[in-house]
Design a protein that fits this description.
7 strands, 7-stranded mixed sheet, Rossmann fold, 12 helices, alpha/beta
Length: about 290
């Protein structure tokens, strides 16, 4: 999916947030912002996808600030906050009329933990509302049918903190005789999940966790490493969490049984999909 012209405003907002946190002076902030604006002005924004645009901007910020992970503190705090909720999430799933549906909705609720798309978010409110919401795009029945028998599932993670919500969903899938491999990014970008987050939250002790090779806020096909590509091609089904994975993998028409789970956090993406902000989506790509 290609970027919208309006994505440039989000890039400027992200840049200012990072500069306000990490730059040492207004002069430095101004000089780096000029480089970002120059890069945006020289880019045909609608020719690349949003994660590629993010990488173009963040590479400038990383080079000029000499920092590779702008959100390391936020990721650790998000993991801690989500782990404090883990027992509560499992109780909600266990007491539900349809535990699989509830686990899926809670996994999507965790998608609100996003320091790239959102300046602020209310996790507890999101948990409360998402359980009452219906999927704006609803292919859950198809997924439920597929997991009624054993499958090899490749689960593409999105953000730190959110990974704990994924963990509760995966725990239920394991009980239903599914085999799950979890994929993380290979380098820091935004607050996307890394191998250290999988270890920190206990997911790596529960199932195999691999790096995708991707250094963008999604899963860029050209960056897939050999191990990940093998799982991507040969798994029975794929669960792809978050907007970044949707923006990089939707529309490729490269395989069947690929499901995208996310919460709409961008009004322009919402308009593109004819959805509203905060809608929750359980979408199977069909072709």
């Amino acid at each position: 999916m290609k970027s919208f012209i309006e994505c440039s405003a989000c890039m400027i907002r992200q840049s200012l947030e990072i500069l306000n946190k990490h730059s040492t002076s207004n002069e430095q902030k101004s000089d780096i912002l000029k480089l970002v604006l120059k890069a945006l002005s020289e880019t045909t924004i609608t020719s690349i996808n949003p994660p590629q645009l993010t990488n173009k901007v963040h590479s400038i910020l990383k080079q000029e600030l000499h920092i590779q992970d702008f959100y390391s503190e936020e990721k650790k705090e998000s993991n801690k906050e989500a782990l404090r909720l883990e027992s509560f999430l499992n109780q909600l799933i266990a007491s539900a009329d349809n535990p699989l549906l509830t686990a899926a909705k809670l996994a999507i609720a965790g998608n609100v933990i996003d320091h790239g798309a959102l300046a602020s978010f209310d996790l507890n409110e999101t948990i409360s509302t998402v359980l009452e919401d219906h999927f704006a795009i609803d292919h859950f029945d198809r997924f439920e049918e597929l997991v009624s028998k054993p499958n090899r599932i490749l689960y593409l993670g999105d953000n730190a903190g959110e990974i704990v919500f994924d963990k509760t969903f995966i725990s239920l899938l394991l009980k239903q005789h599914q085999t799950v491999i979890y994929a993380v990014k290979s380098a820091p970008v935004l607050n996307d999940v890394l191998l250290e987050d999988a270890k920190e939250t206990g997911l790596a002790a529960m199932i195999p966790v691999i790096e995708s090779g991707s250094t963008t806020a999604g899963t860029e096909p050209s960056e897939m490493n050999a191990e990940f590509r093998n799982y991507y091609t040969n798994s029975d089904l794929i669960i792809a969490k978050g907007l970044g994975n949707f923006e990089t993998l939707y529309g490729l028409n490269d395989r069947k049984n690929k499901f995208f789970l996310f919460k709409v956090k961008c009004p322009h993406l919402g308009k593109y999909l004819n959805l509203s902000m905060k809608d929750i989506v359980f979408l199977e790509e069909t072709f």
